[in-house]
Amino acid sequence: MSAPKTLDGWYVYHDFRKVRYDLWKGMSQPAANALLRAYAGFAESQYEIQQDRKGSFGQFVIAGNKADILFLYMRPSLEELNEVKAAFAATPMADFTESTYSYISVVELGGYLAKPGVDIEQDEAIQARLKPAMPSHRHICFYPMNKRRIHPDNWYMLDEEERRKFLLAHGAIGRRYAGIVKQIICGSIGLDDWEWGVTLFADDPLQFKKLVHEMRFDESSARFAEFGPFYVGHQVDTDELWRWLMRSRASFTHERGAGIHDRDRTMGQGN
Ligand code: VOV
Known about the structure:
alpha+beta; Alpha-Beta Plaits; eight-stranded antiparallel barrel; binds harderoheme (III); Coproheme decarboxylase
């Protein structure tokens, strides 16, 4: 029995963080403004890297209390992800948030997608899937998963034909969500605690429930899948993240609606 080939793309770092409200609320308003301005510079540089197609970046507010914020980065190499980690650590945002969960993986596609005789590097459609720009959908859902290895439901002992049959049925369900849910499946065997990181994007979060629910009844998930913790949230730009963070400070009530640039202006006037 031989392992199926995979096509591997950008390395992915999910960085889930919680706000240290004890520090954040104790900070003076000018200090909070300066902090967020410094962070905005970092976020801007991340979006520029994405613009240059040298990586991807997204900011998300996470629902529930497993985390408050997710920073999601993709880069061509693990070293570059570690550079991003250092660059983030240098921002004051790192001082008043703490990591609650992280996940390292690499964008993965089935090896059968490689057409014989065609250089993967020249196949634009495959390159776009291996090195994806951050989808612009409003919502995100992330969870890690394994394929079971307990007899008789041992995914890794199935022959190729059986696995293909299961994945065909899985793909058929997924395709019914074309244009509604976008998936980025990342392999993490040898990289992190689970075998895959599943990241889904949709404008309506209810579609995550509908898709995952449908897949639970499909044999490839019903018999073989095991799941880790689920995270769900919505995508924000830096300005919206700023407003969300400011709302969590008691002093924000009289500043509701002020964005980074408004704040910069008022800061410049000596506020
Ligand atoms: C949003 C829709 C969607 C679509 C269209 C889709 C399609 C496909 C196709 C065609 C293929 C086959 C290999 C390849 O082409 O890469 C896959 C592969 C895979 N998937 Fe998937 N999947 C989706 C969605 C989707 C979800 C929601 C999940 C989580 C499962 C659940 O129960 O919660 C998932 C998982 C996976 C995994 C872990 C793999 C790798 C399995 C392996 O052993 O290698 N996936 N997937």
